[in-house]
Design brief:
alpha/beta
Amino acid sequence: MNILAIDYGTKNLGLAICLLGITMPYGKITNQNTSDVIKKISEIINEENINKIIIGLPLNNFDKDTETSLLIRKFSDELKDNIKNIEIIFLDEKNSTKESISLLKNTGYKNSKIKEQKDSLSAVNILNRYLGSNNGC
């Protein structure tokens, strides 16, 4: 099974994929226009034969929706309307970006590289959380 993970942000969407059991960052998409983002995700789905999408959902400390999670749910609905036959799963993404930034800092990345890499690394974190609870891809 090939899986695409998305760390949704109002500026960028970080992406990660799991292909043939290997998890890797897949870059980011600038979030300027929802229809363009959906088009790019559709292209990735076709190019990489994606079967499932995992979307990070930032819930609050009481596991309730936040302003951002409501935006993500709206985005997901639009994605479902345009991409058929792909299962979309939400996964609580608490601290995924903080963990990514911390990891990048600890490995010696400079601030400019951290800014460039944090979105896709956050998507990797989301994907790894999913895979850890579901026995891989």
